Structures are given as C-alpha cells and as structure tokens.
Amino acid sequence: MLVNYVDKREGNKLQYSKLSEQILSDSELLKTYYREILILLADVASNQDESVSEYTTGQLSIYFGVSITTINNWINDGRFIGYQRKETNEQARIKSNTLWKSRTGKVYPVQEIVNEWENSNPESNGTDQDEKVFLINQNAAFEIKYKGPYEDTLGSKPLSDMTSMEESDASVWRYFRKRLHDEYGL
What we know:
- The chain is built from 7 helices and 5 strands; from the N terminus they run ααβααββββααα.
- By secondary structure, it is mainly α.
- It folds into 3 domains: 2-46, no CATH class; 54-119; 125-184.
- The strands form 2 sheets. Strands 2-4-5 form a 3-stranded antiparallel β-sheet. It has a two-stranded antiparallel sheet with strand order 1-3.
- Helix 3 (57-64) crosses helix 4 (68-76) and helix 6 (127-145) runs antiparallel to helix 7.
- It is elongated.
- The model has no long low-confidence stretch (mean pLDDT 80).
C-alpha cells in the first residue's frame, strides 16, 4: 500500500511499484529504498496543505460559544491536539483539521464544530464578518459597562487605581479594539 501511495504522488519519479521482489534479498538496496520512502513521506507530512482553513481565537470563540480567554486556556492546556504557539503572545491560527479534546475526553476535528455551528446559523455571512460583528458587539458591551469609550474610561485610568476586573477588562477591550483596527480598519 505504501509503495502504491508513493507512486501516485505527483512528481514522484521513483516508481517503486515497478521494482521486483529481488530487492528484498539485497539488504543494502532495501535500506536505500526504505530511506528514500521515509524522506518522501516526511516531506509530504511537513508540507502545509493550502486548502486547510485556519481560525483565529476570536473565530473559534464564536464557533465553540465560549470566550477568547477560554480558547486560549484550551490552547495552553493542549486541548487543541498538536497545536502549540511558537511565541507567548503569538496570534493563534488553528487549522480546521486540528483535533479538539472535549472535557469528557471525546475528540472532534475543529472543522466538525465549525460545520455544526454554520449549519445552526445559516444566516451567517462567513467567518470574517462573524468576527467583525463579534468584535463590534464586544466593544459596545464594554462601552455600556463602563459608560463611555475606552479612551475616556479604562484607557485614562492608571493601572494602580484599577480593580483586578478592570485590569482584565482593559486588557480584553484593548485586544478587541486592536483586532478591529488591524483587521477591519475600524
């Protein structure tokens, strides 16, 4: 099966399926072919699949129905199996074929969660629009909670005068505002 798979790969010039079983009697030749197959498979495994969608923590928070903080906690806890940030504050991009481990231990592909959400929300216009609406709504919620825009409320308050809740809200609010600015020019 492995030989047939390798032979069907585009650009493969090895044509292993045309080799005879005499190779099995020559251990050095067998090792050479085995090594070449492993190199080819490692190359295939390391290539990024351009057709696989990626999702931000904001998008995933919508699909999973949880906060961005929860998504980040799940990343830190290893619940997105195989995904790790390379840098501490790196913006996460979780691939749709990544497996997510639920609290019960059951494992689901992220794409399955996304598809389920999209099927339940047919009025949705796509993930970018969903994130934009989410960010605008969150910004508005903070403006209502603090009775004004960020600059006039938490943005003008010294950190030493903030409660822990205000510090947390200020951090999240700044993040939402930055995303709105960076991604949507708002």
